[in-house]
Amino acid sequence: MTNWRTLAFILLLSNSFLSRARGHGAMGDTIARVYACYLENPENPRSEACKAAVALSGAQAFYDWNEVNIADAAGRHRELIPDGQLCSAGREKYKGLDLPRADWTATALTSSAEYLFLYRVTAPHVGFFEFYVTRDSYDPTEPLKWSDLEDTPFLNVTNPAIDSANYRIPGVTPAGKSGRHLIYVIWQRSDSPEAFYSCCDVHFGEGASRHSLA
To answer: Which residues contact residue 65 at a Cβ distance below 8 angstroms, ignoring those fewer than 6 apart?
Structure first.
């Protein structure tokens, strides 16, 4: 007969699995802050920005890189997420992602160029993606506000093609941009009210390294 210790162990494993299963993805290229810090190793990150983020949020938040979400968003992103907390989706667990810094790892981009965006996915769902870029007045050393983003997305995609690990989202990078900016990506599921959020630091022109998921 199964004793209480065995039952407790089974429940612990089940809860651990369910916790992991809730996560579904983040931008891989352009790379999201949470995924960049995960790749650096949350126990011993290399960059100063990731060190600061882990110090504030703890390492587990970055092992759960695919869970920067709101379960009942249903398109109410601006209503639910306060200014200054866009990168964490207003979640205390991910507050390190909201640190206003100019040294987050950035992906190099060319303005008005064709680009294959990759969304790293651990559980695919039907839904749509919206890509916003910051205004020319954006200051990365100030907390990110909704008003820092341009009013309309530069890219909208519904149910993009997927390979074994990524949604593949072809598009064109924003026009007229130079220097450091941020791309904010919202993935809203259409089979659920759940939505996921990615803050991707980018640099238009010289001064940043191209990232690869290899």
So the answer is: 23, 26, 32, 34, 35, 37, 38
Question: What value does the mean pLDDT take over residues 14-42?
Answer: 77
Within a domain: 91: yes
114-121 and 107-109 beta bridge pairing: unpaired
12 within domain boundaries:
no
Q: How confident is the model over 112-155, as pLDDT tens digits? A: 999 999 999 998 899 999 999 999 999 999 999 999 999 999 99
Q: In terms of Cα–Cα distance, which of 92, 70, 11, 78 is closest to 193?
A: 70
Domain count, the chain: 1
Range(s) of the domain holding residue 141: 23-204
Q: How far is CA 2 from CA 9, 123, 130, 194, in A?
A: 11, 33, 50, 37
